Amino acid sequence: MEQRGRHRFYRLAGPDVSAALECLALIAPPLAITSLKQSNRAIALRRGRSCYDHLAGRLGVALMRGLLERGILTGHDGIHRPDESVRDRPASYGHDAQYRLTRTGRTALAELGIHTERLPPRRPAIRYCVDWSEHQHHLAGGLGAVLTARLFALDWVRWGRSPRAVDLTDTGAHGMERTLGIILTDAMVPVGC
User: Fold this and answer.
1) How far apart are CA 152 and CA 71, in angstroms?
2) pTM for this structure?
3) pLDDT-derived band of residue 189, with 50, 70 and 90 as boundaries?
């Protein structure tokens, strides 16, 4: 735990804890929305949010889809099929679909300033999370974290008004479409962009 002013920030003990929390989020019943503020926050979180240190929501799922369609990643189609999980390992969440970075992917990411040979060595380079709002995969692991940090550094995404909410900027909309092949929908682009 780290205290900053009135706020306390807790760090997870490891990637297994984040995987367990994501699994629980999939089965947890949604909270009833009883105010306009709660509704706006829920919409913002579905549009784009942080999932620990990587992007999630429609934006995160679209990012994963763009990486797959551009051939930057390969190995799975990004669609979550719970009935196809590995039966021998019920905790195989994040492991049962094997994504791989392609040679084309290394080049495309290097053009964005991401050098994949420098990914954090203590965690898997490419993992996925099942997005609780979209029920599809979004990119996690070391690559998901580094890519998200780079998108913030390029000012392609910014923190939104709600905690964890992430907004796509105009520059980001154009940059992601041009370099990563992300097809944006109106539901992803924040009001005012």
Assistant:
1) 23
2) 0.76
3) low
